[in-house]
C-alpha cells in the first residue's frame, strides 16, 4: 500500500499535466481500468456480445408503427454510404412512410474512460459536421446531444425515442465491453417501453462469430488459420459480405414543419468537447493531414490503389497533394507486399483513421481491391501472400481478427493480458497512472520508479537516443499517426528494452492516435509485449538498429523527424556513436540494447523474477 502511494506521488510530481489533460483525469471521474483475474475469467466465460444478440432476439419484434424511426450513430460509423444500420433504418422508415432521425450522443466520460485523445474527438466532430450537412440535404435531421454522466446514456437515449415517438431504432454493434453493457441496458429499457431494438454487425468484413474453430465453435486465437477460413467464408458469399448497403432515402420535406421534429435540425455539432480541445494550429494541421468526410476518404483509398508512393509524402502532409503519378504496376497497393514496411515513403494506405471512425466501411476497402467486372461476375477476393493486393487484404483481416478477439475474449478490453501466465512479469514502470497495480510485480525502490518515469517521458517525447524510436515517436506526436512497423518498434522498445508495462504504452498511443481503436491498439500492444493472441514470442526482440536500417533505408524518415541528425549519412544515422551524438546534441542511448534484451528474456522466462 505504501509502495503504491509512493508511486503515485512520484508520478504526479515530476511532470505537471497540461490543463486539458488535468481535466480529463480529474479526481471526479477516474475509472479503474484493470480487472481482477476472476472478473476477467467471468466475462470471457459469458461474453456480453452473446448476451446482446440474445437480448435483441428476445426483444420486441413487431412494434406498433410509431411516428419516426431512429438510427443511433456511434463513434465508429461516421458515414452515410454503405452503413448497414442506417440503410436498414431508412428502408424501414420508407416502408412505413415515417421520417428517419439520426442521433449522436456525446459522452465525455466515456472518452476519459477509454483514453480518447483530443485529435480523435476533433476528427469525430469534423466528420459529424460534414454528415449533418449531407443528411440535411435529404431532410434527415442529425441531432447531437452531450450526456455528462455516462451511466445516464441508456436512459437519455430511450427518453429521446419517446420524445420523437420512435418505436424502432437501429444501431451498429460496438464490440467493446462497456459499450456492449450499455447496449444491454438499452435493450432492457426499450423492451419495457414496447420499443424494438435492432443491433446489427457492420464494423468488420466478416463479423465476430462466423470464423470459429471447428472443434468447439471458439474464437480463433491464432491468425493464420483464422485468416484462411475468413477468406474462404468471404469468397463463398461475396454478395453478402461485400454488400454495398443502399444509401438512405430522403425524408419528406414536411418533416421540417413538424412541431415535434423540426427543432432537431437546429442542434449544432459542437466545435469541441470540454477537456478535449485542440489548439488552433493543431486543429488546422489535423484538417490538412486528415481531412474529414467520406469523399476525402474514398479519394485517399483511390490514391493508394492507383498511384505510386512518394518520399515527399512521408510526414504530416495533405494526403491528396498534387503530383501523384498513376501506375498500375507500381501503385502503392501493387508493391505493398515488398514495400509495406518502409517508413520513408507513403507505402501504406493511411486509411486507418477513416476505418477507425467508420468514415469508410471495411467492405468498401475490400471491394476496392476487386475490379468492377470481378465484383459483378462472381470473381474472388485476393487474400494471398504473394501479391500486393492479397497482402493488403490480409491487413484488413487482421483488423477483423482483433475485433473478434475483443468480442470473443473480452478480458483484453479490461486491462488483462490475454496470456495470464505473463501477468506477473516484473516491470520497471507502473501499468497505468493512477490505477492499482493489479497483480504485476511493482518496482522495488523510488530510484527505480524515478528512472522508469524519466524513461517513459523520454520515450514519449522521442529522446531515447535510438534514432528510429525517436523519429517514430515524434511522428506520432506530430501527426497522430505513425506507420505500423514504427508502432511495433516503439512498442517493443518500451516493453522489452525499458521493461515498462505495456499498458502505459497502450494508453499513450490511444491518447495520441487519430486512428485510436481499442481492438487494434490493444492487439498491437499485446502482440509486441508477447502477452496477446498469436504474439511475438518473448525471446524475439527487435534490435532497433537493424529494424531502422530495414524500415528507413534512405534515412529520410529519421532525418525528417530528428533534425539533430539531419547531416548524418550512412550507418551512423541508425546508430550514432557517442562522439557524433555529443557533437550534434543528440541524446546517448538510455539503455544498452543487448543487456536489456537479456533482462527481458529472463523476466519473461520466469515471470516474477527480477
Ligand atoms: C502497438 C500498435 C498499436 C496499434 N494501434 C492501432 C490503432 O489504435 N488503430 C488502428 O487502426 N491500428 C492500430 N495498429 C495497427 C496498424 O499499425 C495500423 O492500422 C496501420 O499502421 C494503419 O496504417 P494504414 O492505414 O496505412 O495501414 P495499411 O497498411 O494500409 O493497412 C490497411 C488497414 O488494415 C488495418 N491494419 C493494418 N495493419 C493492422 C494491424 N497490425 N492490426 C490491425 N489492423 C491492421 C488497418 O485498418 C489499416 O488501415 C496498431 C499497431 C501496433 C503495432
Automatic annotation (TrEMBL):
PANTHER family attached to this UniProt entry: CRYPTOCHROME, SI:CH1073-390K14.1
InterPro entries tied to this protein: Crypto/Photolyase_FAD-like_sf, Crypto/Photolyase_N_sf, Cryptochr/Photolyase_FAD-bd, Cryptochrome/DNA_photolyase_1, DNA_photolyase_1_CS_C, DNA_photolyase_N, Rossmann-like_a/b/a_fold
Photolyase/cryptochrome alpha/beta domain mapped to chain residues: 68-205
Residues annotated for FAD binding in this entry: 336, 348-352, 392, 395-402, 515-517
Organism this protein belongs to: Mycena belliarum
A Gene Ontology cellular-component term: cytoplasm
Assigned protein family: Belongs to the DNA photolyase class-1 family.
A single GO molecular function term of this UniProt record: deoxyribodipyrimidine photo-lyase activity
Highest taxon listed in the record's lineage: Eukaryota
Protein keywords: Chromophore, FAD, Flavoprotein
UniProt keyword annotation of Lyase present: no
UniProt site (Electron transfer via tryptophanyl radical): 427, 502, 525
Cofactor note: Binds 1 FAD per subunit.
Classification of source organism: Eukaryota, Fungi, Dikarya, Basidiomycota, Agaricomycotina
Entry-linked SUPFAM superfamilies: Cryptochrome/photolyase FAD-binding domain, Cryptochrome/photolyase, N-terminal domain
Pfam families for the chain: DNA_photolyase, FAD_binding_7
Protein name: FAD binding domain of DNA photolyase-domain-containing protein
GO BP annotations, alphabetical order: circadian regulation of gene expression; entrainment of circadian clock by photoperiod; nucleobase-containing compound metabolic process; response to stress
Required cofactor(s): FAD
Region span, Disordered: 1-25
Amino acid at each position: 500500500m505504501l509502495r503504491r502511494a509512493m508511486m503515485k506521488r512520484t508520478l504526479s510530481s515530476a511532470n505537471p499535466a497540461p490543463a486539458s489533460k488535468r481535466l480529463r483525469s480529474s479526481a471526479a471521474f477516474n475509472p479503474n481500468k484493470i480487472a481482477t483475474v476472476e472478473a476477467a475469467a467471468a466475462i470471457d466465460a459469458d461474453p456480453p456480445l452473446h448476451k446482446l444478440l440474445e437480448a435483441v432476439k428476445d426483444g420486441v419484434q413487431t412494434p406498433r408503427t410509431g411516428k419516426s424511426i431512429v438510427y443511433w450513430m456511434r463513434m465508429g460509423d461516421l458515414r452515410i454510404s454503405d452503413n448497414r444500420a442506417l440503410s436498414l433504418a431508412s428502408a424501414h422508415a420508407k416502408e412505413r412512410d415515417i421520417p428517419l432521425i439520426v442521433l449522436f450522443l456525446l459522452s465525455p466520460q466515456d472518452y476519459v474512460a477509454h483514453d480518447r485523445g483530443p485529435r480523435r474527438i476533433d476528427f469525430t466532430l469534423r466528420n459529424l459536421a460534414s454528415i449533418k450537412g449531407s443528411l440535411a440535404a435529404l431532410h434527415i435531421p442529425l441531432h447531437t446531444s452531450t450526456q455528462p454522466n455516462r451511466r445516464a446514456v441508456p436512459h437519455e437515449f430511450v427518453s429521446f425515442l419517446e420524445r420523437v415517438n420512435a418505436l424502432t431504432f437501429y444501431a451498429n454493434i460496438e464490440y467493446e465491453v462497456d459499450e456492449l453493457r450499455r447496449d444491454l441496458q438499452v435493450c432492457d429499457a426499450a423492451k419495457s417501453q414496447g420499443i424494438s431494438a435492432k443491433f446489427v454487425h457492420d464494423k468488420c468484413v466478416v463479423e465476430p462469430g462466423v470464423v470459429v474453430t471447428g472443434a468447439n465453435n471458439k474464437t480463433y486465437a491464432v491468425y493464420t488459420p483464422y485468416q484462411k477460413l475468413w477468406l474462404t467464408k468471404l469468397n463463398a458469399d461475396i454478395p453478402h459480405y461485400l454488400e454495398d448497403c443502399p444509401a438512405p432515402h430522403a425524408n419528406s420535406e414536411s418533416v421540417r414543419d413538424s412541431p415535434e421534429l423540426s427543432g432537431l435540425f437546429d442542434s449544432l455539432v459542437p466545435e469541441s468537447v470540454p477537456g478535449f480541445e485542440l489548439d488552433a494550429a493543431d486543429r488546422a494541421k489535423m484538417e490538412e493531414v486528415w481531412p474529414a468526410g467520406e469523399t476525402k476518404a474514398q479519394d485517399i483509398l483511390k490514391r493508394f490503389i492507383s498511384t505510386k508512393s512518394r518520399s515527399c509524402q512521408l510526414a504530416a502532409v495533405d494526403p491528396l497533394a498534387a503530383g501523384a503519378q498513376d501506375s498500375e504496376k507500381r501503385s502503392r497497393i501493387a508493391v505493398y507486399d515488398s514495400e509495406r514496411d518502409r517508413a520513408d515513403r507513403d507505402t501504406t494506405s493511411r486509411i486507418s483513421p477513416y476505418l477507425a471512425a467508420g468514415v469508410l466501411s471495411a467492405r468498401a476497402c475490400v471491394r476496392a481491391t476487386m475490379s468492377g467486372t470481378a465484383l459483378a461476375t462472381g470473381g474472388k477476393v485476393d487474400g494471398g501472400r504473394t501479391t500486393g493486393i492479397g497482402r493488403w487484404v490480409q491487413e484488413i483481416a487482421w483488423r477483423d481478427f482483433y475485433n473478434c478477439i475483443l468480442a470473443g475474449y473480452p478480458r483484453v478490453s479490461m486491462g488483462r493480458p490475454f496470456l495470464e501466465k505473463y501477468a506477473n512479469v516484473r516491470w520497471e514502470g507502473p501499468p497505468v497512472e493512477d490505477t492499482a497495480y493489479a497483480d504485476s510485480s511493482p518496482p522495488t525502490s523510488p530510484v527505480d520508479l524515478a528512472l522508469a518515469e524519466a524513461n517513459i517521458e523520454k520515450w514519449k517525447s522521442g529522446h531515447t537516443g535510438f534514432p528510429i524510436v525517436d523519429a517514430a515517436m515524434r511522428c506520432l506526436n506530430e501527426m497522430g499517426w505513425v506507420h505500423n512497423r514504427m508502432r511495433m518498434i516503439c512498442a517493443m522498445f518500451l516493453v522489452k528494452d525499458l521493461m515498462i508495462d505495456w499498458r502505459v504504452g497502450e494508453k499513450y498511443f490511444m491518447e495520441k492516435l487519430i486512428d485510436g481503436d481499442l481492438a487494434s491498439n490493444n492487439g498491437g500492444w499485446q502482440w509486441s509485449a508477447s502477452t496477446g493472441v498469436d504474439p511475438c514470442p518473448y525471446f524475439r526482440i527487435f534490435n532497433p538498429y537493424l529494424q531502422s536500417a530495414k524500415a528507413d533505408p534512405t534515412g529520410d524518415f529519421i532525418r525528417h523527424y530528428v533534425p539533430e541528425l539531419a547531416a548524418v549519412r550512412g550507418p551512423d544515422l541508425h546508430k550514432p556513436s557517442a562522439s557524433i551524438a555529443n557533437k550534434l546534441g543528440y541524446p546517448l542511448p538510455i539503455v544498452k540494447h543487448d543487456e536489456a534484451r537479456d533482462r527481458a528474456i529472463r523476466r519473461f522466462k520466469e515471470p516474477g523474477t527480477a
